[in-house]
Every structure is written in C-alpha cells, then in structure tokens.
C-alpha cells in the first residue's frame, strides 16, 4: 500500500520521489558547477511549519527558478547551511512542495508534463494565453487547488505572472493570503536570467553568479490589511516595487530590456 500512496492530487509519491531524485541529479551542476548559486536564509527554511507556507518570489525563467528552490529547500532541511553541496539531500526529498504554473506552459511537451508531476499546480492565467492578451474569469477550481496544496504543504508562487521584471503583482496572490492565512516567505533571486534561456531548460552562459535570498516570514494582519496593502508589502519584499527602479542606472535598465526582447523573440509564450 505504501508503494502506491498518493498525494491530494493523485500523484504516486514513490514516482514523485524518484522523479525529484533524477531531475535533481541532472540539474545540480547548473547551480554548483557551470554556475555558482549563492544562498542566504537556510535557517528560515528549517524554522517553517510543515504546511500552509506560501513562498512568494520574483521570476526570471519558467523552470530554473523552481528547480533551484527544490534544491535549496531540501538541502536546508537536511542541515546544509546556505549550500547545496553533497546531493544526498535529495535521497529523501520533501514531497509536499508545490509550485503555481500556467497550465498552457505545463502542457507544451512531454518534458513539461513530467516536470508538472513533480509538483505543479497548473492554473489558467486570466490575462494571457498563447502569447495573446485575454480577459478571463478566475476558475474556482484553480483557487481550490492552491488551497489544497497549502493544506498539504508548501507552495511556491510568482505573483507577477511573468518573467519580465518590474511588472505589477497580480491581486489573486493577496486574496489567497487573506483567505487562507499562510506563512508568507519572500524569496529574491538573481542571475537566472543571464544563466539560462527563457524556459530555464538550456544553459545559456556559464560562470554566472546566481543568488537566492530567503527572507523571514512577513508580518501580515490577515483580517485588517487591505489587498493593496498586502500587494505593496509583497512588492517591497521581493524587490519589485517601482521604487527599486530609482536605484538602477539607465544603462542597467536598458540592458534588462534588451535581454528581455531577445528572450521574447527566441521563445513565444509569455
């Protein structure tokens, strides 16, 4: 019976465990080999409760960001201090880590379907589909699936809904926070955009210093704070508030935009 035990989404945990092991072994060199991942905040991970935790992060690639978090979270839980050395931490990985992803992205290929099995909560984006702007109603089933994942474990979400920096956060994240009252942990990543292609599957450049900062949980008054107040708090926490643009030079901003244009033409989808 234990061999075929399933999570709330019907995924067989034995298969998920082996999928994470194999995928982890195949991707480890991307963060500790070809490139170097600088980590801060392992103790924050170890201090978190087992369930109802929401990680809120900026977004730079479709998959490399999430894969790196699977590495860092599991390494931290196995006692590594700001390090992912010694891949043995994935032999018995935490199986109740989920991530929110666009349903259309997770259906694109056999590889993305396999990655979805590792923990995707696939949702229909209300503002974008097949590279076009749309205006759709939020599906209740999508919200209930996120709630189900929070009840079972940890959820990673990228509230900007795009890999383009400085875009406004989607209000849906704030509504989920007010409704389900999770522990909210901000994560700030950098260097992934320079290291990988837009999908985060191909190493674009080697020797890049990547970084992941896991910040302490936010202090949120779930009952009394407004949606806009929570969104602003998230924007500051993941360093995507418009005020951060004031400390970035025009040259750096122009380079960001040029890189995004190049990535947009190389892969249609976002």
TrEMBL record:
GO molecular function list: 1-acylglycerol-3-phosphate O-acyltransferase activity
Gene Ontology terms: biological process: phosphatidic acid biosynthetic process
Keyword Transferase: yes
SUPFAM superfamilies in UniProt: Glycerol-3-phosphate (1)-acyltransferase
Keywords annotated in UniProt: Acyltransferase, Transferase
Pfam assignment, any one: Acyltransferase
Matching InterPro entries: Plipid/glycerol_acylTrfase
Organism superkingdom: Bacteria
Domain Phospholipid/glycerol acyltransferase: 53-192
Pathway: Lipid metabolism
Name the UniProt record assigns to this protein: 1-acyl-sn-glycerol-3-phosphate acyltransferase
Species name: Flagellimonas olearia
